[in-house]
Structure formats: C-alpha cells, structure tokens
Design the sequence.
C-alpha cells in the first residue's frame, strides 16, 4: 500500500492526568505480580537478590518510560510505536512493527487475557465450573463455557470503548485505583500480621540448582521483565491525551514508579507470610498468602482483585491496540476504513470492532496462547526499536521541540535497550540450544523480518518502476 500523510479527523483530547496514570498503571497490573514471585524465588537463594531483581525490572521499565515520555511529548499522536518508528526508521520498519503489534500482539493479548480471566478467576467468583464443553465447532474444536464467556467479555469492553474515550478511561481509572488501594492495604496487613514461614508444610522448599547462577538470574529477570510490561500503553492513545507535553511524561514516570513501589510492597508481604522457601512452592502467591492470612474469604478477595486487575489490563489493551491500526490506516498502511473517527464519539470505532473480531477469531481458533508465545520475542524487539527511535531522532531532528527531555539521557534509554537486547539474546540462545518449545518465539521474529523485507522490496520495486 502506498503510504500517505494523515489528514483531518483526529480524536478529541479528553484523557487527563489521572486517566493517563490509570492507563499506564492499570495496563501493568495483572497476573504477573502473583505468578512471577514464585519463579524469582526458585531462582534466587537470598532475599537480597530477590528484591534486587524486582528493582532492576522496575528500573528497566522506567528507563523505557522516560524515552517514550520524550517521544510522546514530542509527537503526541495516536499510534505509539508505529509513529515513532516511521519517523526514525522509515515506513518499512514501521509497517512490519505495526502489523505485528496490532494483528498478533494486541489481538493475541486481548484473547489471552479474556480467556484467562474467564477460565481461572470467573469460576471461583461465580462458584461454578466453566470448563465444560458448550459446543463443537465445524473444524472439530470443542468450545468451553469459559471461552464463550470470553467471547462476551471482549465485545462488551469493545462496546464500552466505542462509546468514547471518556467512558473507557473512567472505567480504566476505577479498575486501576481499586486494586492498587486494596492490594497496598492487603500487602501492609501481610507485613504486619504475617505468620512465620516455618508453620507452612512447604516452607522447606529449596532453590533450584541454578539459583544465583547467570542462568537462574536470567530466568528470574525475564519473569519480572514481563510482569512490568504494559507501561508503554499510554503512547498509543497520545492523540487523545490533554496537555500531552505534561501528562504523557508524568503518567509514564509516576505510573511506572507507583507500580514498582506496589510490586515491592506486595513482595515484602509475600515473603513475610511465606518466606523465601515457602514462596518457591506457592505457585500463585497471592492466593496462597491470602489463604494463610484469612482462609477461604481471603482467597476469594484476592481472586476478585486479580479479576479486577485483569479487566483493567484488558481494557487498556483494547484501548491501545485500535489506535495502532488507526494510525497505520491514516498513512495508508492498513485498510482505509480503520482510519476513520466516529463523529459522535470521536474514537476509531471501526478499528476497535475489527480488533474485536480478530481477537474473537483467535479465541475460536484456540491458538491465542501459541500466538502470544510466538510473538513474545517480536514484542521485545518492537519496544527496543521504539526506544532506539529516541537516539535516531535526537541526531536527525536536534532542533525539534521537546517539551520533556528523557531523564539521564543517554544512560537510562541505553539501559533499556541493553536489557532488551539481553532478553532477545537469551531467548534466541534458548531456541538454538534445543530447549522444548523455546524455538517458537523465533517464528514471530521471523514474521517481523519477513514483513519488513516484503514491504521494503515492494516499495523499492515501485520506485524503480518506469513511469509511462
């Protein structure tokens, strides 16, 4: 497709400071903070290293945040990664990154979050089993009640977002602030009233043999790295943020710092109740901790908070993904209908519903988890390219207005790039070593490269084609 410059019809800037903060923090909150602590504990032999890894993960997220804060305040337009990579690296890189982001990463995340919520949290809250088969699809796949529920949740949240950014951001704010306040309160209670780890039957669990080795550190860090993912979502809706030169940097920095502080507080609570040895066998640490402190009511309470946090993450993903498609369509890199803004609600409704359709098709296919795993490496690469855009634009556009300049530049942005490249190297190394299923993310990386090569080749052939 021939790419063109955007025209009129931009969304309305209605997202204010608290809403922007909620998009950052709410997109980060999720099941990761409850599953990752056990992985980190298994691969460390001391609380000092345990906390160090969580601090390092938070610092890495902050490093990416300050880079995107400069980019977002400099170019406060919808689309995030696509916009910055287009300006820094050209249309082919942006085209490949944008298509993988929208069709695989965002739609795959929506399907994964929706089915995960309805498979694990919803049955506990409703007190019913949703694992039974509802119907068998023509291609032989059995559709469970949980997946049917996800097929209702995804369109419902899409419909909410289609009514306007104000309503979706208000919902996002509520879904974010409630779990933040309650999780902070529960963590504080756990710290003050936690029992001794020796009272637990599994409190003698030993660390893995690779604990504190480079391999163990890497496994632990990667779990934390993905637990912090989601901080970037505000840049996708930058075109709808009011006073973006101020609110985008503030939301990225304070949202990331706030979640980092909350994660550390929660981890202190886990260790106070379970101990490092107990945490290694806890699996989902939130439910295990709540069960010890308050029995079944505590487990239901933490399950409710997880469900609310997942809804916030899901809503933030629905909100952001459609804006990538919208930005691409505005430049002719995606179907033109997706570049339209609804005149009544001032949101890209068509992009939202196409995204909803693709996510629901992934649910029906049953391949959403495989897709999400497949593009995990590509997801790291696209984020790295976005932060790298900062260095390119500092050199190519030194005089461009920068209402916010990245703190501790170039150290913090360079830290993010180095960290991400380390994750990429480790994932590629695991794939080449023959570890089971570790090769799967290479398919996503290969897809990203293939789209780039195809677009660049097509663009070159069009330039070289003789004119009649």
Sequence:
């Amino acid at each position: 497709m021939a790419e063109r410059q955007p025209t009129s019809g931009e969304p309305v800037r209605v997202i204010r400071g608290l809403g922007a903060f909620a998009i950052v923090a709410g997109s980060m909150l999720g099941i990761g903070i409850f599953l990752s602590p056990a992985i980190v504990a298994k691969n460390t032999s001391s609380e000092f290293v345990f906390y160090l890894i969580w601090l390092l993960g938070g610092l890495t997220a902050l490093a990416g945040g300050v880079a995107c804060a400069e980019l977002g305040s400099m170019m406060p337009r919808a689309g995030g990664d696509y916009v910055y990579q287009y300006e820094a690296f050209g249309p082919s890189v942006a085209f490949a990154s944008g298509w993988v982001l929208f069709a695989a990463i965002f739609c795959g995340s929506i399907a994964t979050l929706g089915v995960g919520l309805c498979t694990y949290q919803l049955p506990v809250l409703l007190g019913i089993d949703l694992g039974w088969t509802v119907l068998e699809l023509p291609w032989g796949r059995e559709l469970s009640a949980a997946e049917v529920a996800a097929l209702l949740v995804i369109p419902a949240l899409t419909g909410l977002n289609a009514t306007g950014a104000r309503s979706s951001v208000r919902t996002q704010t509520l879904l974010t602030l409630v779990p933040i306040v309650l999780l902070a309160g529960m963590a504080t209670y756990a710290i003050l009233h936690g029992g001794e780890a020796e009272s637990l039957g599994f409190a003698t669990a030993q660390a893995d043999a690779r604990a504190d080795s480079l391999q163990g550190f890497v496994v632990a860090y990667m779990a934390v790295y993905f637990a912090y993912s989601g901080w970037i979502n505000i840049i996708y809706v930058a075109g709808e943020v009011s006073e973006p030169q101020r609110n985008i940097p503030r939301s990225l920095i304070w949202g990331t710092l706030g979640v980092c502080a909350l994660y550390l507080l929660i981890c202190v609570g886990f260790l106070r109740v379970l101990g490092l040895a107990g945490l290694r066998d806890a699996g989902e640490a939130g439910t295990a901790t709540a069960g010890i402190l308050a029995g079944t009511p505590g487990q239901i309470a933490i399950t409710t908070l997880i469900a609310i946090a997942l809804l916030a993450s899901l809503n933030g993903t629905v909100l952001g993904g459609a804006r990538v498609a919208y930005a691409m369509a505005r430049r002719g890199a995606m179907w033109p209908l997706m570049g339209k803004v609804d005149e009544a609600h001032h949101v890209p409704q068509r992009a939202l519903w196409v995204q909803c359709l693709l996510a629901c098709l992934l649910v029906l296919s049953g391949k959403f988890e495989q897709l999400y795993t497949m593009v995990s490496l590509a997801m790291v690469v696209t984020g790295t390219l976005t932060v790298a855009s900062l260095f390119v634009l500092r050199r190519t556009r030194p005089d461009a207005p920068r209402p916010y300049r990245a703190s501790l530049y170039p150290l913090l942005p360079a830290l993010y790039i180095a960290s991400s490249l380390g994750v990429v190297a480790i994932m590629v190394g695991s794939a080449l070593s023959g570890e089971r299923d570790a090769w799967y993310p290479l398919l996503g990386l290969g897809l990203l490269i293939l789209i780039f090569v195809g677009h660049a080749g097509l663009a070159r052939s069009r330039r070289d084609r003789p004119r009649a």
Summary: The domain at 17-456 is CATH 1.20.1740.10 (Amino acid/polyamine transporter I). The CA atoms of residues 184 and 262 lie 6 Å apart. Confidence is low (pLDDT under 50) at residues 196-202. DSSP finds 15 helices and two strands in the chain.
